[in-house]
Amino acid sequence: MTSIGVRPKSAPSRPARAAGHAVANGAVLAWLALTVVAALLHGELPAPHWLLIHVFLLGAVTNAIVTWTEHFAAALLRVPPPARWWPFTRLAVLNAGIVAVLCGVSGGVPAVAVGGAAVVVGVVAAHVAVLALRGRRALTGRFAHVVTWYVWAGAALVAGGTLGGLMASGHAASARDAHAHVNLLGWVGLSVLGTLFTLWPTVLRTRIQDGTERIARWSLRAAVPGLAAAVTGLLVELRWLAAAGLVLYALAAALSLVPFVQTLRRRHPHNAASWMLAAGTAWFVVTLVADAARQSLDGLLPLVLVGFVGQTLLGALTFLLPVVLGGGPAALKANAALIERAWPVRVAVVNAAVPLLVLPVPAWTVRAAWAAVVAALAAFVVPAAASVLRSHRPSPAVAGISAGVLLTALAVGVTAHGGPAGHSTDTRAVPASGARVVDVTLADMRIRPGTIDAAPGTRLVLRVTNKDAQPHDLRLASGQATPKLAAGRTATLTLPPLKSAVDGWCTVAGHRAAGMTMRINVTDGAHATGDHHGTSGSHAMSSGPLDLSAPMSPNWRPYNAALAPAPGGKEHRLELHATEQELEVAPGVRQRMWTFGGTVPGPVLRGKVGDVFTITLVNDAAMGHGIDFHAGSLAPDVPMRTIQPGERLTYRFRAEHAGAWLYHCSTMPMLQHIGNGMYGAVIIDPPGLPRVDREYALVQGELYRGAPGSPEQVAKMQDGRPDAWMFNGTAAGYDHAPLTARTGDRVRVWVVDAGPSSSTAFHIVGAQFDTVYKEGAYLLRKGDAGGAQILDLAPGQGGFVETVVPEAGHYPFVDHDMRHGESGAHGIVNVTG
């Protein structure tokens, strides 16, 4: 057996190395303590928020990976560690960068966040460069492959950190999935998989499996291109490429775990570290399987953070900390006993809690599970910190770096959250001299008071409370900002002495444009600040003329308008995910859209009178959403409520009446949610509806170009000035991908007008309707003497028409309001003989 704690030749004395580990692991434990603090301050678990995630992953996990990959590389390659100044300098600069990222994002100062991201990327790049150079100078050995895993993991962090910096600067907003995957599967995943080759048998106190080196090299050769393909696919929104990359990565991970399983079969877990590493690895496998199926970590983050990353980190520290802290066999045994105290209970509680964090269970159960997880983390941090402190009297370096990380990061948490969860910030902490406290409420798409008048030099303290059901925040043009506040949450903003007017607004997409603004006036008439738009990051896309005859992009796929018959059975179940997607909404024009199920419109549901629909809405988006099915009749209070990111809601209704019904997002402002794509159709067949040869469903909607929720886009919505009109989410889409029929076919076309503002007059050029059904009633039936040419629908209405196409040719269908028809609401039925 080879020990990862072996001392390389020419290494510094063990006390010096132990002191270095005390400093480095003191920083890790400080960040873990801050994770507990961030969770307690947030108080809104079930869904982990941005600060909690990054305090844990960027703070604790990144420090641990940098520290331990250097230790393992030196031990396994038997090379001297670098000069002592390098680890201390790297530790200080790395944590300064991490704190800058947290402060910059939480405080709404993008330049600080981007600078911090650049520092983190630079430190990790230098770290892996040092590892690579030292590895090349070392004699080729059976463990050289481990360093290669670490180098590629560092490259993943460089890519992920760069994406994070771009996102913090307001660019690459659609890179969130790619950012999450390259960091979690690359920086964390590759580091863990590379380490397990040697750490796992060491923890189990058995030999390393024969053939491990060969498996390690081959699995890495597949994992890296798999991860690269997945991240590329997510960035350019090629879902097939992302899926293929994730499958390849998962297969590579499975191959790399072959020695893990072989060792497990030979020697079972028997202590705290081995059980936690085994459980963490098992949850990693579950994550990879689920992720390969979904190409998204949304909804899986609690599983990743707690099940995989958290348990793996704590399991490794449980084994390694007593070893590296030194002090002889007695000290090692005492430290191990202290850190492992009550470990069976902690491991059982955490692994029982993990499924509750991702499954559709009652909210109180999820909160209880999170409370158990946070308690288990605290139960590790306290004895681990005690073991470090009793092994080494805190030197100035240990005390300075650890306390600096703790205090600075704590300041981030308090600044971002404004005080403990569920309580208003204590006004006794407000400076009394020259200060004026104003209570500000956020509710009903308004900030109240909307205007505050104050004399020059006044130090305003705004105590901001969200009294709405959905989250809001308040950002001031002078730079102060609250985090997004859940219902009932309070935060405090302290302004510097007033010199000029200050504007404020809610940054949630579309809320500023809908009227959530305020203004602080200086009573002596001082001029207002020049930039009243602040840093909301909403920039309208180009709104020049659309070329609807231009070709669609090669990767564009039309929405499938073909409508299948109503399925059998009386109950229909569907899980519907609210997501944000970049879609091609007109030839060559891509736009960020808010969607149900990743498409505009959402999936068409179909059934018969009396059928029961059970819809589970899962909010995978970055803001609150709800849903309203016109096909059901029930009190809207609960099923149509807004749910927050990461939450689920079950909506159950019985279809009592036939018709073509609209469903749409029920979150205010509905004009924006519907106008940005959150709508779909429910088809309930009239009794005795005969079969036809071809059946299609078209949902007409409006296209408003621009960043969703931006002032420019919302102004167009409020004025009723769409840039185009669409059938099934694309202006002129069915010109480029015509619907089809054969001569003599009876064709039924269901039409639903989603609006949100425009009526429609549906017409097929060259055809006459012998059947017209509108809003639950036949206006014309086959066999009647008359015919029809238009199905007219107001926003929210639906129906169908039938026709028999007499001969081959191209039959355009249009909204006969020619403003709409000539601006995208048209397509073609291609009839062949």
What would you say this structure looks like, in words?
The protein has 833 residues and is α+β, with helices and mostly antiparallel strands. The chain is built from 19 helices and 27 strands. The strands form six sheets. The protein has a six-stranded mixed beta sheet with strand order 18-17-20-25-22-23, with no helix packed on it. Strands 19-27-26-21-24 form a five-stranded mixed beta sheet. A hairpin with a 2-residue loop joins strand 9 (571-586) and strand 10 (589-596). Helix 6 (176-204) crosses helix 11 (301-325), helix 10 packs parallel to helix 13 (343-358) and helix 11 (301-325) runs parallel beside helix 14. The radius of gyration is 30 Å and the shape is globular. 52% of the residues are buried. Residues 5-13, 43-47, 412-434 and 525-543 have low confidence and may be disordered.
Descriptive tags:
833 residues, alpha+beta, five-stranded mixed sheet
* Arithmetic mean of pLDDT: 83
Distance between the termini: 77 Å
Return Rg in Å. Answer: 30 Å
- The count of β-strands is 27
Category from helices, strands and their pairing: alpha+beta
Task: Name the quaternary structure.
Answer: single chain
Largest sheet: 6 strands, mixed
Strand order in space, largest sheet: 18-17-20-25-22-23
Would you identify the regions where 5 or more consecutive residues have pLDDT less than 50?
A: 5-13, 43-47, 412-434, 525-543
Strand content: 15-25%
